[in-house]
Automatic annotation (TrEMBL):
Naturally occurring in which organism (per UniProt): Ensifer canadensis
EC number: 1.6.5.2
The protein, known as: NAD(P)H:quinone oxidoreductase
Entry's Gene Ontology cellular component terms: membrane
Family, per entry: Belongs to the WrbA family.
Keyword tags: Flavoprotein, FMN, Oxidoreductase
Pfam families given in the database record: FMN_red
Domain annotation Flavodoxin-like: ranges: 6-192
Gene behind this protein: wrbA
Gene Ontology MF term list: FMN binding; NAD(P)H dehydrogenase (quinone) activity
Top class in the EC scheme: oxidoreductase
Length: 209
């Protein structure tokens, strides 16, 4: 059986979502996945970015590190994990723009039956982590993804994260995800990969019959 292919498509401005994305990637690799990490690109120019301290510099650094997600990445993947910082209690426009760009392959039915999961971060306590993750469930359902939440299926879930996906509160960018939050991320990577592998096996068995 081939390795499950996992796409982690995320947007990060100040690094917290980036760190969670890498923890999820580590967990997926531990479970035997082939992983692509991709960062969505800004929708505004540098004149706007320069008004927020560090935004332009962080964007340049992360864009050098990661390719932008594409339709081809989504078609390649057996599982797609979306990650975003909270923007007024909902998904960032940068990640949403990528999801909206998938309309072509959605129309062709190429996303049906792939595994889908979400993670995110926010600057302030009660800043919308859970509402943001739940808001992404809606377009995931329209895309035809099989949504995989975390529940409380691992001891790490009783220390950090949410049952909907890995999360972090940065306290206005003064805190980075600690080991408890990274453990939830790694669990998410393992869980999504395990489900993707199970679907691979089921589809292979069905084709053989």
């Amino acid at each position: 059986m081939t390795k499950p292919k996992v796409l982690i498509a995320f947007y990060s401005r100040n690094g917290s979502t980036d760190i969670l994305a890498n923890a999820i990637a580590d967990g997926a690799v531990q479970e035997g996945a082939e992983v692509r990490l991709r960062r969505a690109r800004e929708l505004v120019g540098e004149d706007v970015m320069s008004q927020v301290p560090g935004w332009r510099e962080n964007a340049r650094a992360m864009n050098e590190k990661y390719e932008a997600p594409t339709e081809a990445d989504a078609e390649w993947a057996d599982a797609i994990i979306f990650g975003t910082p909270t923007r007024f209690g909902s998904i960032s426009s940068e990640l949403k723009a990528y999801i909206d760009s998938l309309g072509g392959i959605w129309f062709q039915g190429k996303l049906n039956g792939k595994v889908g999961s979400v993670f995110g971060s926010t600057s302030s306590k009660h800043g919308g982590n859970e509402s943001t993750l739940l808001s992404i469930y809606t377009p995931m359902a329209h895309l035809g993804l099989i949504i995989v939440p975390l529940g409380y299926a691992d001891p790490a879930m009783f220390k950090a994260g949410t049952p909907y996906g890995a999360t972090h509160v940065s306290a206005r960018d003064s805190l980075k995800p600690d080991e408890d939050h990274l453990a939830v991320g790694r669990f998410q990577g393992r869980r999504v990969t395990s489900v993707a592998r199970g679907l691979q096996h089921a589809n292979t068995t069905e084709s053989a019959n």
